[in-house]
Amino acid sequence: MTDSGRSLRDALEDYLALRRALGFRLAAPARLLGQFVGYLEARSASTITIARPPTSTPTPRSARSSLQPAPCGPGSGRPPTRP
Question: Which residues pair with 73 in a beta bridge?
Fold first, then answer.
């Protein structure tokens, strides 16, 4: 059940009906979203969240995203960037 008391499956059906009424063709997305809701239902999940459990070691992607750009301009050996 969602916070409003509806099941995720019902919420998905309402979402797909709205999108179809707006003219979208949703064959593949409807199938994939249905599989995702099935996955959540199998785990008794009632909400969808983007929260991730903490990890003890950084992943290569998170390590890359934390890199700072190299300095540019005088004294750096690199030409300044143009605005």
Answer: 78
| pLDDT digits (tens), the chain, 83 positions | 555 678 899 999 999 999 999 999 999 999 999 999 999 999 888 777 777 666 666 666 655 555 555 666 666 666 666 65
CB atoms within 10 A of CB 40: 15
Q: Where are the domains of the chain?
A: 1-49
What helix, strand, coil percent values describe the chain, rounded to 5?
Answer: 45, 0, 55
CA 51/CA 37 separation, integer angstroms? 17
